[in-house]
Design goal:
binds iron/sulfur cluster, 4-stranded mixed beta sheet, binds FE2/S2 (inorganic) cluster, 24 helices, Ubiquitin-like (UB roll), Rossmann fold, 19 strands, alpha/beta, binds flavin mononucleotide, 5 domains
Length: 636
């Protein structure tokens, strides 16, 4: 590839790339995102390469390894084009059949297709699988068409068209205006209007300005930003470049956490390629726009995602938030005007410039436009990354896309917004995902974590878990956050251990309000959310723990006991063999008994007892029945 010095060069190259790709030529796309790596896409890729060579198809079939396709639960995923046949949970030994049957003979390998869990009906085409059918993958969709290390692949899907439009057809003011008219709100959590923020930085006095990509993503369980950065780094960089042009910045930073090695390596490879071909550096595409990007690896502290502490961390200082104002838009990195946006926010920019503010406004709700990517995890059949138009309901996401709750269990709540988000009960499942609606329901959008919980989750324990995370991650600079979270955590821990007091709920409420009011940054200000939302929607669970020493979900270890029903026990010995604490007494034809003092409540006996017997049960809030006297333990 020659250096690209003008729009004409760019378009000539794009035409050449597209001409080289005969549209009917078959291709195999193998997801190689982090989750598929974990499920073994590496050996599958090696098998594909080997098999294509073996069958003499090396130059007749395209093989591409891409970023995350979203349906991580079912990885490794391979998609065969042009038909769009989607094979799930592919193993190396499946590869010869895929090549000879599907590629050569045009036949499907039935066992690798998606099977509808209700009807067992097989679905071959990716687009028809319910998980994908109900999504609108405007941002994530490109992932499966691009090898993240290939600039050609990105150019083939229209890459850098938006940048050239911005540089040659629009003034910086017009770009800001387009983003403002699109009503794009930041995807990093607070939902602040992106165009307005750009305008602040653009108008701030100063020659040198910075633009920054926030790829810290510290929320446990969330991996949207990581998947975009791993799968389509060019789109994020293109968005960043357009923003830099609009704002008047000539230097950019990508702040990415150290634990994301694949994201860092794909990003660095993309940047190196862009520099090599002249799409970064001086006079980009022959315009007057100069721009460079550096990558900064963060050490992986949740607080470093907060923008003022991210700036400190970039400066090489400990990541502690600063009071605002002054806002980063005026005094940010090295006291210069700085605009920070989330990865997904930047990735939306090329779409807005290419398709226009009207198109973007046609998707979503009154107050939240475009799509949003969620990481759907927890007690749901189809876990993975899901992109929906704003306004989709939680019910649609959990049931139509997520396929409902596994094991016939009952839905209990969905937690959105990361560790400082809130829990939404079943009665509010028709809430639309929209910045304002989620807040109204007592939760928040956050960066897009969505954790589904079934009847086995104790919501007091869940609040305790999140407060534990936040207590560890608070930078400790201000007392209301440091102490407020710690005290709330102490009370919640007591409650889950059956040591709650009658006035604990009042004290929790008071602590929550003070912490929210008096903390310096949004970590402390939002930390009470898990407590307040569970108190609001699931108060009776707190009361049962405090008053009856009972955990209704049968989850809090200190409040449950395992018991063997003497009527049901068949003395098979399975539980006794599994019990790691040697707490079960039994023998041939002797009804087994659990010694409650030795029992650690690990639940191994419950799992071990055959379903047909179902003799082990969990009890909470009631005394464990006395064991049978020795002489009555004999059966048969
Ligand atoms: C404790 C804390 C952690 C945060 N972590 C992130 C993060 O990992 N990624 C992110 O984009 N924003 C994060 N934010 C929000 C950022 O401070 C900032 O609002 C965001 O990067 C702005 O980008 P946006 O306007 O595109 O959303 C965090 C905020 C707080 C208070
Ligand atoms: S609110 Fe918490 S995390 Fe934020 S500055 Fe204060 S102590 Fe640090
Ligand atoms: S596994 Fe169940 S049936 Fe078998 S001995 Fe234990 S309690 Fe009894
Ligand atoms: S990593 Fe393969 S589908 Fe998500």
């Amino acid at each position: 590839m020659a250096r690209i010095k003008s729009v004409a060069d760019l378009e000539k190259l794009r035409t050449e790339i597209l001409a080289r790709r005969e549209s009917e030529r078959p291709s195999i796309t193998l997801c190689s995102g982090s989750a598929c790596h974990a499920t073994g896409c590496g050996p599958v890729a090696a098998a594909i390469e080997q098999e294509l060579k073996k069958q003499g198809l090396g130059d007749k079939v395209d093989f591409r390894r891409t970023g995350c396709h979203g349906f991580c639960e079912q990885g490794p995923i391979a998609v065969i084009q042009p038909e769009g046949i989607c094979y799930l949970r592919v193993k190396p030994e499946d590869v010869p059949e895929i090549v000879s049957e599907t590629i050569v003979n045009g036949k499907r390998v039935e066992r690798l297709l998606y099977a509808d869990p209700a009807t067992s009906e097989k679905i071959a085409r990716e687009a028809e699988i319910p998980f994908y059918r109900h999504q609108q993958r405007l941002i994530l969709g490109q992932n499966r068409e691009i090898d993240p290390k290939s600039l050609e692949d990105y150019l083939a899907v229209g890459g850098f068209q938006a940048l050239s439009r911005a540089l040659f057809e629009l003034t910086p003011e017009q770009v800001v205006d387009e983003v403002k008219r699109a009503n794009l709100r930041g995807r990093g959590g607070a939902g602040f209007p992106t165009g307005v923020k750009w305008e602040f930085t653009r108008r701030a006095p100063g020659e040198l300005k910075y633009v920054v990509v926030n790829c810290d993503e510290g929320d446990p369980g969330a991996y949207m930003d990581r998947s975009l950065m791993e799968g389509n780094p060019y789109a994020v960089i293109e968005g960043l470049m357009i923003g830099a042009y609009a704002i008047g910045a000539s230097e950019g930073y990508v702040y990415v956490r150290q634990e994301y090695p694949l994201a860092v390596s794909n990003l660095e490879a993309a940047l190196a390629k862009l520099e090599k071909y002249g799409l970064l550096g001086k006079k980009i595409l022959g315009s007057g726009f100069d721009f460079t990007v550096r990558v900064h690896r963060g050490a992986g502290a949740f607080i470093c995602g907060e923008e003022t502490s991210l700036i400190k961390s970039l400066e090489g200082l400990p990541g502690e938030p600063k009071p605002r104002p002054p806002f980063p838009a005026v005094r940010g990195l090295w006291n210069r005007p700085t605009n920070i946006n989330n990865v997904e926010t930047w990735a939306n920019i090329p779409l807005i410039i290419n398709r226009g503010a009207e198109f973007f406004n046609s998707i979503g709700t009154e107050g939240s436009k475009g799509t949003k990517i969620f990481s759907l995890v927890g007690k749901v059949n189809n876990t993975g990354l899901v992109e929906v138009a704003m306004g989709a309901t939680l019910r649609d996401i959990i049931y139509k896309i997520g396929g409902g709750i596994p094991g016939g269990k009952k839905f209990k709540a969905v937690q959105t917004g990361g560790p400082s988000g809130g829990c939404i009960p079943e009665s509010l499942l028709d809430t639309a995902v929209d910045f304002d609606e989620l807040t109204r329901a007592g939760a928040m959008m956050g960066s897009g974590g969505m954790i589904v919980m079934d009847e086995d989750t104790c919501l007091v324990d869940l609040a305790r878990y999140f407060l534990g995370f936040l207590s560890d991650e608070s930078c400790g600079k201000c007392t209301p956050c440091r102490e407020g979270i710690r005290q709330m955590l102490r009370i919640l821990t007591d409650i889950t251990r059956g040591q709650g007091q009658e006035d604990d709920l009042e004290r929790l409420q008071e602590l929550a309000e003070t912490t929210r009011y008096a903390s310096l940054c949004a970590l402390g200000k939002t930390a009470p959310n898990p407590v307040l939302s569970t108190l609001n929607h699931f108060r009776e669970e707190y009361e049962a723990h405090i008053r009856e020493k009972r955990c209704p979900a049968l989850a809090c270890r200190e409040l449950i006991a395992y018991h063997i029903d003497p009527e049901k026990c068949r003395a098979c010995g399975a539980c006794l063999r599994q019990c790691p604490a040697e707490a079960i007494d039994g023998g041939k034809k002797r009804i087994h008994v659990i010694d409650q003092d030795r029992c650690t409540r690990c639940g191994a006996c419950l799992e071990a007892c055959p379903e047909a017997f179902g003799a082990v049960s969990k009890l909470s809030g009631q005394p464990v029945p006395e064991p049978l006297p020795e002489e009555k333990r004999c059966i048969g």
